[in-house]
Every structure is written in C-alpha cells, then in structure tokens.
Design a protein that fits this description.
The chain is α/β, with parallel strands linked by helices and 191 residues long. Helix content is 31%, strand content 29%. The strands form 2 sheets. The protein has a 6-stranded mixed beta sheet. The chain has a 3-stranded antiparallel beta sheet with strand order 1-2-9.
C-alpha cells in the first residue's frame, strides 16, 4: 500500500497537479486540476498506483474490472492485470455510458469499477448503473484520486489511492470567473 506522501510524490514527479482556472468534467470550476494522464503515461507509476487498488480489493472475489472512458481505461487494464481478471471500459454512446466493442457482463459477475479522478462521481455512478442493469454485482469502486476527499458515496466498498480536498465551485459562483483574470480551461477528456 502506498502512503499518502508516496502517492503525492508520484503525482508531483509526473507533473500531474496543475494550477490555473479549470472547468471540470462535472461542470464545476477549480483553481487546481489533477491530470492523471500525466501519471498514467509512465508504466512504472501506473503499476504502483494500481497495485494499491488491487491490494484493497484482492479479497473481494473480483471477476471483472470496468472503468469509464477515457480516464478509467488504463486504470481498469492495470488493476485487472494485477488481479488476474479481465478488464474493459465503457464509453459514451448517444451521450450515455454503454458497453461497446463486444464487451459483456455476465449476470451475477462480481465487478470492480475504477476511475482515474472523482469529483462528483457522475461517470462512476453511470458505470455502476449500467453494470447493475446488465445483472452484474458491483463489489467496489477504486479511484486513483478522490477530489471530494471522501464525500462522494457510491454505496459500495470504495478506496482511493489519494484523497484530496481540492476546492471547486459551481460555474456561476466561481471567484476566478468573477475576477476575470484567468481564462477557463477544459483540460479533461470530455468537452
């Protein structure tokens, strides 16, 4: 298991914590952004971070690991590899999360849902709903970075490699927008 200081060291070394004015996937604004893609481009870092999650869920009889595209693809692959089970991802089709590419979930299959970063948990909640609609049993949620500092509850066992209390605001209440000095940037994978 990684200590918080070790996890922060990995993210810092990879240049993943950005400062500025950002519009998050949730629509909220923040002065900090965790760009996990900067960490996930390094296989050694990815292996270390995923090992943390695999260790947490190793006794939960996970049969499948699923993550939302884009951020959860690499995380799902590496956590699945370490657990010795298949890994796949969901992607948006007509605006909603869906299994594509011939992926399937068997009724009763024990599924671990993973993601790179969670702020409001919207994408993870969508993946959980699809897994359940297909008859899968969600045994847990694992994330690399929990920006909500534990305030998002998925109703199942959950773990984060790193929990941070990064401030974010509804767009209409964003002090950075009100100051007007920094343009808002959308660095994530969804527009």
């Amino acid at each position: 298991m990684l200590a918080k200081s070790q996890a922060i060291g990995i993210f810092s070394q990879a240049g993943a914590l950005l400062e500025g004015h950002f519009r998050l996937t949730s629509g909220r604004h923040s002065n900090q952004y965790m760009q996990c893609a900067q960490v996930l481009k390094y296989p050694a870092f990815t292996e270390q971070l995923a090992r943390h999650l695999a260790e947490v869920f190793k006794d939960d009889e996970v049969q499948l690991v699923v993550g939302p595209a884009m951020g959860g693809i690499v995380v799902a692959y590496e956590v699945a590899r370490q657990l010795g089970v298949p890994g796949m991802f969901m992607e948006r089709e007509n605006g909603a999360m869906a299994l594509r590419r011939g992926f399937a979930i068997e009724p009763g299959q024990r599924v671990l849902v993973v993601e790179d970063v969670v702020t409001t948990g919207g994408s993870v909640k969508e993946v959980i709903e699809v897994v359940r609609q297909l008859g899968g049993q969600v045994v847990g949620v694992g994330v690399l970075v929990d920006r909500s500092n534990g305030s998002v509850d998925f109703g199942v066992k959950q773990a984060a490699v790193l929990s941070l209390d990064i401030t974010s605001w509804e767009a209409e209440h964003c002090p950075l927008c009100q100051e007007g000095r920094l343009p808002v940037v959308k660095p994530g994978s969804r527009s």
